[in-house]
Amino acid sequence: MVFGVILAGGIGSRMGNVEKPKQYLKVGDKPIIIHTIEKFIVHDAFAKLIVLCPKPWVENTKKLVDKYLGEMASQVVVLEGGSSRNETIMNSIRYIESEYGLDDDTLIVTHDSVRPFLTYRIIEENIKYGIKYGAVDTVIPATDTIVESQGGDVISSVPDRSKMYQGQTPQTFKAKKLKDLYESLTDDEKEILTDASKIFVIKGEKVYLVQGEVFNIKITYPYDLRVAESLIQDQKKK
């Protein structure tokens, strides 16, 4: 079975002084999180879409899903997220295991709630190659030179840009394998995690690449909201 897992656990501190987490801000005529859910809900491969958000926002999220998705709202379950990104993903896996069972073929397509411009093609390839390889990450080639600084004051190295990629989401995994690898990590290893793909890398497992899109942006800063609004308006003209 294939499940969509939409990660909405952040509070959006980098967005500045706003009254709500950034995933609930409106772009166009809908909250960002609804735009994102809609990209998943049109794909018939998913047994369920699991949305994970901060505890104080669970009921509000359920109301938004009902308001904007109508009959399709039954395909969505809203759960409380965890204390970190990976603990939030583990919450989704625990739900799947309790409600549907977990086997070697159970697949989760995890995605940032504040990346509302992913395409059907990106989702389709995540599922296809997730099934084939067990772990895939969506990336785009780095266009800027990447500079490494160990201390934050001088350049330590300048990696070969042709080998550098910028990570996006979705990230797709065989859920049981991800759970087993995560539970085998030491506390120190968990401390250095940035996302779920790194769990596989730490354990020497291969993570295959899916080509993303430049416009598959993550809405993080106030400027990103203006860019997103422009993209939404441009889509309406087509």
UniProtKB/TrEMBL annotation:
The record marks 161, 218 as: Positions ribitol 5-phosphate for the nucleophilic attack. CDD domains: CDP-ME_synthetase (cd02516). It catalyses: D-ribitol 5-phosphate + CTP + H(+) = CDP-L-ribitol + diphosphate. Its EC number is 2.7.7.40. Signal peptide: none annotated. One of its GO terms (molecular function) is nucleotidyltransferase activity. The record marks 14, 22 as: Transition state stabilizer. InterPro entries: IspD/TarI (IPR034683), IspD/TarI_cytidylyltransf_bact (IPR050088), ISPD_synthase_CS (IPR018294), Nucleotide-diphossugar_trans (IPR029044), TarI (IPR034709). Keywords: Cell wall biogenesis/degradation, Nucleotidyltransferase, Teichoic acid biosynthesis, Transferase. CTP binds at residues 7-10, 82-88, 113. Transmembrane segments: none annotated. It comes from the Bacteria. Pfam families: IspD. Belongs to the IspD/TarI cytidylyltransferase family. TarI subfamily. Catalyzes the transfer of the cytidylyl group of CTP to D-ribitol 5-phosphate. This is Ribitol-5-phosphate cytidylyltransferase. It comes from Jutongia hominis.
